[in-house]
Amino acid sequence: MGKGDKKTRRGKISKGTYGASRPRSANKKSAAEPAKKPSKKK
Predict the structure, then answer these.
(1) Residues 33, 6: Cα–Cα separation, whole Å
(2) Pick from 5-9, 16-20, 29-33: least confident
(3) How confident is the model at residue 28 (pLDDT cuts 50, 70, 90)?
(4) CA 36 to mean position of chain CA atoms
């Protein structure tokens, strides 16, 4: 198991794919909430 194994996290990183061992949502957790801009009201 390692870089050539598609089922491991390291293998997914080397292949550039996603799956159960490397979900996409975990990577976006820190940037999930974008900064809200204050609305302009006249």
Answers:
(1) 31
(2) 29-33
(3) low
(4) 22
Rounded CA-CA distance 10/27 in Å is 15
Residue 13 Ramachandran class (φ > 0 left, ψ -120 to 50 alpha, else beta):
alpha
Helix (H) or strand (E) holding 11: helix 9-15
Owner of token pair 């292949």: 15
CA-to-CA distance for 10 and 4, rounded, in angstroms? 8
Write down how long the chain is.
42
Q: Which residues contact 15 (CB under 8 A, 6 or more apart)?
A: 6
